[in-house]
Amino acid sequence: MTFKLEPGELIRADNFIDGRWVPAASGARFAVTNPATGEVITNVADSDRADARAASDAAARAFPAWRDALPKERAAILHRWHALILEHADVLGELISLEQGKPLAEGRGEVAYGASYVAWFADEATRIYGDIIPQQQRGKRMTAVKEPVGIVAAITPWNFPLAMIARKIAPALAAGCTVVAKPAEDTPLTALALVLLAHEAGVPPGVLNLITASRERAVPAVADWLEDSRVRKITFTGSTPVGKYLARESAATLKKLSLELGGNAPFIVFDDADLDAAVTGLLVAKFRNGGQTCVCPNRVYVQAGVYERFADLLSQRVAALKVAPATDPAAQIGPMINVRALDKIVRHVDDAVSHGARVLTGGKRLPELGPHYFEPTVLADANADMELCGEETFGPVVPLFRFEDEAEAIQAANDTPFGLASYFYSQDVRRIDRVSRQLEAGIVGINEGALSSEAAPFGGVKESGYGREGSKYGLDDYLSIKYHCQGGLD
What we know:
Layout: E1 15-17, E2 20-22, E3 29-33, E4 40-45, H1 49-68, H2 71-87, H3 89-100, H4 104-124, E5 131-133, E6 141-148, E7 151-155, H5 163-175, E8 178-182, H6 188-201, E9 208-210, H7 215-227, E10 231-237, H8 240-249, E11 256-260, E12 265-269, H9 275-287, E13 297-303, H10 307-319, H11 339-354, E14 358-361, E15 377-380, H12 387-390, E16 397-403, H13 406-414, E17 418-419, E18 421-425, H14 429-438, E19 443-446, E20 461-462, E21 465-466, E22 479-486
Helix pairs in contact: 1-7, 2-4, 2-5, 2-6, 3-4, 3-6, 4-5, 9-10
């Protein structure tokens, strides 16, 4: 199987500013490559401060009219955008797999997942309610209304190039905000295609603007938004160090922030768990996108009484996973995104082995497939001295830690500065209540490995960030509350 994408079929290589496709002001470009082969797909605009400022100028001009549009008018445009995304699902799925590397089935699944947020917030656009505050004094009426915050800057990662940007743009547009956006340098093509479809759906010029930039130029480009007082909100998904940088640098203008940052998710298997279900749940949670998701389990704690049996069941299932490029219909694990990601995985596995880990399956690069492939790996006898215990691997590596009792498992699970997702398997209803309350995470999977839904609030605690995406709560971060006090009514 080969991808049939043609240059004119949703592939764009310029910035989208004020309703027009324009090159970077400097004329610079950078290459977007296929991680499965290392081949260049195309060269896109390499933007800097001038392009970022042009985008925010356009967003500022468009904001008053978009803010004042009726909610049902904004909703209608979002519904048309949703329909166009689904109409082009196959092409978008191929594009995701081409530039990001995930298997084609996962690429198509991401299209449906990202589109679900557009549909959800299209409906939520018509449900932005205020309140009449009970009267406190005669002749005085008090009300609270919700208004769009203003221009939103959305900065998104490479691992879900459609879903992450849809999850940010859709609520912003639903709330009446205008948007400037920058996708990850590894995967800009899917975001550009999504913006093209939004334009075709009727999003007015200036309401949605997107620039692309290489790693070197992205910092000054984003810095312009951080310094611009007209940009009232930053929404970012990515690493905790970058999230902290954005928080510091935006403090001068006191921007509103939504930060969905790094994780170090524990996955706990108690001795009363359904082990077959736990193995299946772990495979779903861990190996989606080859382990390159922020909610992937990074530390798997298994109670001593079932440790060896669980390790054996898991190793058999992991060894059977098919590693191949997305063009192979049987592919279950694709390439890692780039050589930096692969080098980190190798470093973690080598360090674990040097600290006593046993490789039950996998553990090696697969250069015969291409430059960025690594075997799905299970490591036994993991311990807290290993780098992978404190740092996200972001790859297809499962370290198994042994524990004796519930208190030990909870203490180990919470012994991290991060708190995005946690998972545990148990059939004891009392334990389920205890453990779910004690885990320090914004998301808890209980006998379940698939957590994400447009109807659920997604976000973390501690150094995994703040704010929530999706659900009925997902619109709040794009709105401000205004209090009206009207007197003289007697």
